[in-house]
Amino acid sequence: MAEQTAPRSSAVSTGRRQFLRAATATGLASVAGVGAAQDGPTEITDWHDLDAVRDAPDREYVLGADLGPETAGYDEHVRNRSGGWNPIGEEGEEFAGTLDGTGYEIRGLTVDRPDTEYVGLFGGLSGTLRNVTLVDVAVTGGDHVGGLVGDNDGQVRAPTVDGEVTGAEMVGGVAGENPGLVTEATSTAAVTGEKYVGGVVGYVGGDVRQSTASGAVTGGEDVGGLVGYNSISGLADRGGDIVGSTASNDVSGNRHVGGLVGRNSGLGVVRGSTATGTVSGDRGLGGLVGVNDGEIQNSFYDIETVQINGESALTVGGLFPDQYEQWQATDGELSPEEYDSLTVDGNVIELADAQGVRDALAFVHDSAFGWRLTADIDLTGEDAGLYFPFVAGLFDGNGHTITLDVDLPAVSRVGAIGASLDEIVDLSVEGSVTGADRVGGLVGLNQSREVADVTTDVDVTGVAAVGGLAGENADREDFTRDEDERGRILDSTASGTVEGDEQVGGLVGENSGSVVTSTAEVAVTGGQSVGGLAGTNSGGIEGSTATGSVTGDGGIAGLVGGSPGDISNSHYNIEELSLNGETALTAGGLFAEQYEDWEANDRELDLEAYDSLTVSDDRVEIADERGVRDALGFIDDRQFDWRLTDDIDLTGEAAGLYLPYLVGEFDGDGHTIRLDVDLPAASQVGAIGYAEETVEGLTVEGSVTGANEVGGLVGYMPEGSILDSTVDCDVTGEELVGGVVGRIGSSHVERSTASGDVTGETYVGGVVGRNGSGKIRALTVDGAVTASEEVGGIVGLNGGRILRSTLSGRVSGERTVGGVAGIHYRGAIENSRVLGSVSGGTRVGGLAGTFGTGRIVTSLVSGPIDGEEAVGALVGYNDRGFNHFSGTVTDSYWDAETTGQQSALGDGVEITGTVRGLSTDQMQGEDAAEHMSALDFEGIWATTTDPAGYPTPNQRESRDQSDPADSTDESGPGFGLTGVVGGLGGVVYLLSRRGNDTGSNGGRPGQ
């Protein structure tokens, strides 16, 4: 091409640039006149001109010549500039004008800014680019990286990009992220990234139309030949729209890798598009789309042309060659009436054999069609690998059986039906199914309104979310455009074997929908979250059961493995179903006699039939071991509250007994339960495994061992209260382990004591392993708390409030160890004290090992503090990664003699306020009120005399500072100690600015 298309007038020198002013006859403005009113588009003829666009980003521009390495300004703006070309525009300051390439090329664009976001010829765009051609680009950036534009909020029309584009997340040959429009794009660029990587666009929330990609695409997760991730747009009722586009490239990644799109989200649409390249990766692979949660309309690939990990494989959108060629030849117009194997009866299509399944593949995405079997169908032997990857309409088995042999270990959403949207009824499935994630004997991902009267006898193998009937049973809004209830399984049965790594269940791997009156008779084997009926449940399970066996490493249970969710009137026989080869009680378990009564009476039990259970004052009373056994049939019923009328010994022959799932209130009435529970592979273990109402007046003794969410009193309590209770129980687990409760959500734990030893690996506390947003008030811990990391004398990981609580035992760990909280990432620690010892390796603090946001106020530390790195008398380490700002420490004290610490705060912490290190004499007896005047000795604190001791917070109902707003006070202006920092000898350090005037180790006691 010629270097210019218009006659030029005199050159205009500006010192840094020289601009060529266009002749008046051309109607083109001069780039040099960026500050003047524009008369027609501005012509760009060299790199100086192009760079000047950033000075007037809302004007109209046209290329008037090819730009390449030989063009004026290339050395200054590209070759010799650090990082190469400086992208025009960025987030919030986008290029808002227009640029038309007018048939010219930009060659040799080089950007090398791996730590910079919004990278490309343009960093950010809200205007329009037309006919821009980039040849031999080499663009490298961080996130939001495209050959042409990093983030397109405008319009990109008919661009062409050739070369190489490299980034981290949101990386595309043309655009890294596209909430706007990209149309008629052509990319031959080789694109490499980590996540959201596509040949044309990495991350789409807008439209991509009539575009093609042919350059190799390589990434980690969400990698597609055309688009990496087709997501939800800024509009509430729509997602990204990919129309009339083609990818012919080789695509490789780890997870969610597709020939056209890596992942298509719940509101995303792909229509009239195809892929013809190859796909390789580990999990979630597809010839057209790696993982599909949205709509696919009239979009396909040729199963035998597109190789997936070197082989032909049927996934969503796959057609066999004859049908694919017909689709291409008819411009995407196919009709089921054209196929002898399909019989159309109104809006229902009938099929009877394997050929019918093959031919149905072109129509199963259309919700206008329902499906009905008219015979059993054998999909083994020569037809092995056949199934329905996606069915949008009703599927009626009509009493018939499908026999399967599907082996797709790298493909997600696999079953007789990979994913479904409408009803599946009256069908039997036999054979074997292997997939990656969301793998089921009937359906990989069930989004149906209802699955009813279905039986499966299938050997199912997968990685995550693996079930005998459904891999995932989902009632999730992001999958559909209507508000109907979805993910309902009714009157169905699964048998066979199920094997996976996590979220593995006899009926369902992962359930967020509802399971009603269904049965699993399955041998289930997995790693984490393994259950006889469901691997995990965040939905509802009612009137259902499991038999068979469960084998796993952690989070195993007879009914639901990980989180039990809402379980109602659903049970298994403790004496028949084996857990890791043994009989064991978990949520839903009944002993044989009661289980048989339940089955014999249409899965109903009558409480009045049990002499061990007495109803008095609207509470069910329990007095002995037999009462605990019989209560198992009713503790999941919200109409019942409970009360002890005597101490109960659950050791010896009664060892292993506890209340695994309790939804009513529980009043210990001053009585004691003695426990011996040893379930090292089970989650939610304690005297009560799961509770959501008030538990009060109970003493627990003995020992409890579990895997995750393990507590002496309660394993997991999302809401409710624990009041006036005592736990003298040794508690052992792995993660989320507490002396009283393993994990709480918004619950309250008040006026209680814990005196046993607590041992775990991470998120371990003397009272609670993890406090989400609850309140812990007036707790005393007198035991040893030991873990590897994230361990606290009161709470391991705290996001709520800890008030008036005391550690008098000892806490130790390797990393992130605190006398009150291992990690205090939100909320408040108030009026609390640490009298016991705190020891660890790194991030060790008397009150908190690591501090994120929130407050620490009016608290004291006197026990020895010992660590190797980032050690402080009050806080070990301030992690500014929490919301990019930190909280405050105010009006708190430590004993500089007994703690062995001369610094309030550990390494890497700024100070802006007050803490004080005192002598032992100053902190004990009557002198404490004088030297710790910030403490409220009139309403909350009391001095300790005869003998002299450290002040004690009382348990009266006077308010703490955070009580009036009843909030966790997540904010903070930055980690600070507001006021005065002082120390021994009366020396006071006044801080007049943000920062640490005494060095990086925090406020120091006087020397």
Automatic annotation (TrEMBL):
Residues 195-218, 253-280, 734-759 form the GLUG domain. Residues 943-979 are annotated as: Disordered. InterPro entries: GLUG (IPR011493), TAT_signal (IPR006311). PROSITE patterns: TAT. It holds the Pfam family Glug. This is GLUG domain-containing protein. It comes from Halovenus carboxidivorans.
